[in-house]
Structures are given as structure tokens and as C-alpha cells.
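User: Structure please.
Assistant: Input sequence and predicted structure:
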Amino acid sequence: MLYERWKEEYQKRLLTADQAAQLVKSGDWIEYGFGITSGRDFDEALAKRKDELKDVKIRCDIGAYQHFTAEADPTGEVFTWNSWHVAAHDKKFIGQNLYYIPMKFHENPYMTRHDCEPIDIAVIQVSPMDKHGYFSFGASAVSGWAMMETAKIRILEVNERMPRCLGGNQECVHVTQVDYIIESKNEPLTTIPPAKGTETDQKIAKLIMERLYDGVCIQLGIGGLPNAVGTMIAESDLKDIGVHTEMYVDAYLEMYKAGKITGAKKNIDRYKQVYAFAMGTQELYDFIDDNPGLAAYSVDYTNDPRVICQIDNFVSINACVEVDLFGQVCSESSGVRHISGTGGQLDFVEGAYKSKGGQSFICMPSTFKAKDGTVKSRIQPILTPGAIVTDPRTAVHMLVTEYGIANMKGKSTWERAEALINLAHPDFREELIQKATEFKIWRRSNKIAGTGPVDVAVGK
């Protein structure tokens, strides 16, 4: 039987994490799988070799597990981490021995294949082998095959807890296509509890809900606001919702359990919930396991604006850190202090806008409380010096605060300033008007709304 043959191939490739770590040489580039598919046991074993190696570079994306090598070498003289999206365990090391790699998420596999330093060793955590000899890349099909195609040595770390996720494309690998296999300690997968939306998140979610209708296809980011939208959809009368997203989160599960998701109106991948990776609760991982209603795809499919725009009535909902009066959006830093990566926000901003009937929402509370306790506006005259422009003003569609929704498309600089000041907290509007006047983007005929919710959006 073929299965016996695949088991033999499996046994031939088995080695321990310590043995696998011995394959690393000074100067090597190592890449770990995305998110919860990162090589955990391998990294723990590699950390033990700190005194034997020099200049080992590690790439990761959303470092979901303890960074043993980074902890073993806080100066970065031996192990230098490089992250496609600084999150989770990455954050404690940035500016120390971990650095960010700027990217548009849909370009990640292409950059891996064509632009990055060649991978010497790729390590991906996967689900157990099936009867056909295949391992699922589990909760991330993001860039596994791009890593496999370019790596000199391909290692799988098998975790019995990893869900077997169906696809799609590039969501699995055959035993004959890898070099080595580690049977992991089967540590629990990293989980993320659903973020609780604030009162302001609820207000923003209600504004967005007014623009949703049966058959829309939704992409949600992570955080309290997307969860608030998901909860409201689950409790609404909406039906035939479609899913096409980079990140599959618990909000989708909530909508599905309420019977809102069918995908019946999607132009492509009809009836399938399409995603690139999943992070959330254990219940979410149990739900995506061997579920034929979901399809895992590589991120150069899920996030390609050319794919997204083929889906009618596409709705993208994401958050940001701050916006300036010109309509530039920062979603990844506070000044020069790194918070997050570009991720797929720009991908979906551009793709959703080009969708027939599409809407892209970038959301934020109008204010935030600084460390010193003072309240500050998220709508600033100019972005904080050093802030990263995640979405250029030419790409931004809808901006949302608890005070309304503003469509930036087709607006001149003075119209943008007026619309954005309408979204600001009333306490900051006069100051913003003064700055807009200084910038020569203010007209005497401009009028600012009162303190009630406004909707200055037009068009889509």
C-alpha cells in the first residue's frame, strides 16, 4: 500500500530537534513558518548552540512562540531576528536584536522567491501526515511553499495539535518534498482571546453596520472593533455573508454559528470561506480543522488586489493609529516607535475600493489617552514625526470615527480637511481648523458639523 511507502519515507527523514539544530552553520539564514506554524522546538534547540555559532539570521512573521534564540543572545551578535510583521513575542526584542522587514503582505511570497537573501534552512510547524503522505501547513498557508521552494534544507516540525486545514492552494506539502521531520513536543498552540470592543468601538461598528447589506463579502482585521462588527452581524438580519480575508478570527466563527455566512453571492470561491492564516481561540482551531467549508490559500492569492476586486460588494474593515489632515494613514507606528507592520491593510484598501460596490473602512476612535493621562486627537494636522505612512492619501477610501464616516475619494485638499475635522472630537476641531488654514487647505466657506454623528460619505 502507498501509505506504507509514505511511512517509510517519513521514518527516513526523522531526527530530533537537537539533531536538526546541528545543521545550522555560522552565517546561515533561517526562516520559520508564519504565526503559529513557527518552528518552536527547533528554535529552542538552536538556542543551546549560542556559543558555537556566529551571525545566524532568522526571519519570521508574527512570532507566536517564545523566541529562545533571541533570549539567549540579547545583543544579537549570534542570532539576529527579522520579522515581516512585528507582533506577539517579537515586540519585546525590536530595537534590540529584532528588526522589521517592510512589505505589502500579498508580495511576501514573491519577495521570498526573488528578493530576500536565500534561505539556508526553512522550518515550518505542520499537522500530522495523512494517509496520502501530505502534511497540512496548518493554520497558515501564507508563504510555506515560497519558503520550501527557495530553502536549501526543508524541515517540518510535526505537532499533533495543529489543525489540518484544507485548501485552496499551496496549503500542504508531501513527505517526499521535504528533507527532515521533527516530531515536536506537541506544545499547545498560541491562542488569542477575542478582544472586547469599547463603547467607542460599538459606536463605530454601528455606523458601519448601516452600510452593510445581504451578500457582502467581509474582510476583518484583529481587535475590538472587528469583533464588535462580527457580533453585530451575528445578531442582525443580514444573510449570505461571504468571507475572503487574510486572517481568520473568532468573529467569523461567531457569524457562522449565527447562520450568517454562506458565501452564496461570491463571484469566486463561492460557498467557501477563504483565508491565509488563522489566530484565535482553541475553539477556532477546532473549527478550521478538516473543515471543507473553509479554504486556506497562500497570501499572494488572498491579498492580491487583483483577486479581491473580482469579488462584488467587498467590505474591508481595519484600524489605524492616526490620520493627518491630508488623509495619510499611519497604522504601524507611533512616531518612530514600532507598533505593528503594514500587513495586508493596503492590499485590502486598494482591492476593496476597486470591487463593484466595494467599501474600504479604516477606523479609529477620535481620541486616545497618552501615558501622561492627557487626551489627544488621532486626527492630527500632520502625522507624528517619524510615523510610517501605511496608506497613502491616494489610496484611502472611507475613514471612520464615532463621529461619522468620510469618503476621501475624489476630494480636494480643502474638502478632505473639512471631512476629517468633522470626524475629530469637538474639543480639537478649532485647533485643526487653525492648522488647516496655515497649510492653505481651508476655505472660508467651510462649515463644521456640531457634536452629533455625521456622514459625509458620498459615492460607494
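The two ends are 58 Å apart (CA to CA).
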